[in-house]
Amino acid sequence: MNEIVSTRTNPMIDPAIHIWGWEIPVYLFLGGLVAGMMMISGYFLFRGRQKEMATSCLTLPLLSVVLLSLGMFALFLDLAHRWYFWRMYMTFQPASPMSWGSWILLLVYPALLANALIRPPAWLTARIPALVTLSERIGTRSATVKFIGIANMLLGAMLGVYTGVLLSAFGARPLWNSSILGLLFLTSGLSSAAAFVHLVARDEFEQKLLAKADNAFLTAEIVIIGMFLIGLLSSTAVHIEAAQLLLSGPFAPVFWVFVIGLGIVIPLIVQSLAVNHKVAHTPVAPILVVLGGLILRFVIVQAGQVSHWTRLFPSH
Amino acid sequence: MARYAMAIDTVRCVGCMDCVAACKTENGVPEGYDRDWITYESTGQFPTLHMEIRSERCNHCDDPPCVGCCPCGASHIHERGGVVLVHHDKCSGCKACIAACPYDARFIHPDGYADKCTFCIHRVEAGKDPACVAVCPTHCMHFGDLEDPHSEVSRILASRNSHALVPAAGTKPQIFYLR
Lengths: 316, 179
Fold this sequence. Notes:
The complex is a heterodimer of chains A (about 325) and B (about 180). With about 325 residues, chain A is mostly helical. Chain A has eleven helices and one strand. In chain A, α7 runs antiparallel to α11. The longest helix of chain A has 30 residues, at about 205-235. In chain B, the strands form four sheets. Chain B has a four-stranded mixed β-sheet. A two-stranded antiparallel sheet of chain B has the order 2-3. Chain B has a single domain (about 5-180), classed as Alpha-Beta Plaits. With about 180 residues, chain B is α+β, with helices and mostly antiparallel strands. The two termini of chain B are about 30 Å apart. Chain B has six helices and ten strands. In chain B, a hairpin with a 6-residue loop joins β4 and β5 (about 85). β1 (about 1-5) of chain A pairs antiparallel with β2 (about 35-45) of chain B.
């Protein structure tokens, strides 16, 4: 028997830490989604296919600015000392993933705005006519477009990986303490972004291409989740206990049903049938993928806060 | 250089919570919050049970993950004795340091910043013991400099068996519990 009784009752700390509510999972999801969008639109810019990929290259960049701003607002709401947020921009702390993230976010905005400027939408140019000349200057130079494409892919990858590294750098929370979490969140962001294009694209070619890409991302995501769990299960007792939270513990129903089943496996089957012309393309599968990506962030953030080092071994 | 540490005698400690009350009074810790606390840990099978009573707080780790993860540079190691502290006016309340601490020793102060035990550095710099140590009625707590082999804490750790909390978490905690 090993029973621990503590007189400590700190708010948000006891009995298990619950410092991060809905704000952080929503931010991590939106950050990952924007990362995926930047990589997809950046790739098509780099390949010079921005004209045929209208949704990826026209809708995604401006939408990303809005989604990322919403995510950063959620992050702002999470801060306990909100009006001191600018302190993050008074320093750079190389050992802090959050510090890296706050500076990466600052670089992401100009890359997204440059991307959006290549083909600004009509409603925007009608209000700001000067954008037309600016857009002509950027958009007609293929080297500049390619550079913007590379910048979007690189910064998108950094943003997506950072959302996972942010959590994986916390050695004190065994569930998060896996370096593959960065890759998992990036892949999940790519699959959500591809699903989004699949959902809203009007052009059939673009819709099908992104559905195919989404199937590849979803397959990779399943493999990465498998590796994430194998890594934890083959580690120390605290890591095994952390993995059990998802596999058979209190988070198992949500993890298996919403993340794995409805979020990955079922949409993967439906989309595979759709791209092989066995069933029609419907919004069901991509909507499930996007929701699955959101629920993945919630499950990982909440279960990670429950996972712990203490209270497992007798201290004496 | 000094390396401040504590040695706490779990055989003498009766869990009276005087250390907790002293800390709250000395540091104005808000109601409902604790910078230090008592843990009762029972192990074994009836009838051969063993109980350890511990006065716990921030371990002022030698390799503190709460300092490295801070994006604002608010969480820092004090120039004297390796004491881990927080600049309240630099803290954005992002809670990364709370997630980083395997001991859950930190909390968010009602005013918004991350707060924790300071080893009563304001008292130590004035030549006094931390409030929890000074007030202990069983004299079970010893504070001092590990770098000085003649300090009370060095001598007692050399002569008695002790353990730190969750050393496997890799943070090199500096509070030692005497068995």
